[in-house]
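Collaborator request, handled under Task 6.
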Amino acid sequence: MNFRATSALTVMVLAAAVIAGCGSNSVDDTASQPSPAIDATSQVLDPFVDDTADGQQKETVTRIIDLGNERKSPDNAIIAALVASRAEGLWRVHHSGSGGRNLFGWSQMWDNRPALDDGAVADAIENFYAGAESPENAAKRDDPVDYAVAIQLSDHLGGRVYFEDREAYDDNMSYLGTEDKVRNEYAGALPYARAAFDQFG
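C-alpha cells returned to the collaborator:
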C-alpha cells in the first residue's frame, strides 16, 4: 500500500471515530437531562372538600356571589365575604352553639327570625356588603383578608361587638379571641374563598 492510500485510509478512520463520538455524546446528554419538574401549585384546590351538608356550602357560596354581583360589589368584596363566612362557619348558613350563629359567626340573638329564614340569610350577606362599602373598610380592599377582618370588627349592628359576641354563650370560640387569631383563621380561609370564587364568580 503506498503512502497516499495509507494517509487516505487514516483520515477516513479518524473521521468515522469523530462522528461516532459526537453521536454517542448526544445520546448521553439527552439521557442525562433531568425530567421536567411537576409544578405542585398547578393542582386545583377543592373548596368544598369538607362539605358534609349535602351541597349547602355550594349553595351558600353561590348566594354570596350572586348578591355581591347584584350590588356590583368589587371582586375583593365578594372574596372577603367568602373568607369571613368560610372562617366563621364553613359556609353554613346557620351553625350550632348554645346561642346559634349565622354564616358570619354572629349570635342568633341579633336576629329574631328563625335560623334558616331566607330573609335572615340574605340580610346577613347584605349587611356584610354594606360594611364593605364604608370608606374606612374599602380602603383595605386590596387585601381580602384585611378587608374581611375590618368589616367584621367594625360591624356594630344593634350594638354588637365582635369579640364580646364570640365570648358569649360558652360556644368555645377562643380561636377567634384576638385580632391576630381572627386574621390567622381568615388567612387560612383565603385559598378556599379564591377557589370558590373561581368556580362560581
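The cover message to the collaborator said: "The longest strand covers residues 94-95. Strands lie at 94-95, 101-102. Please let us know whether this matches your experimental observations."
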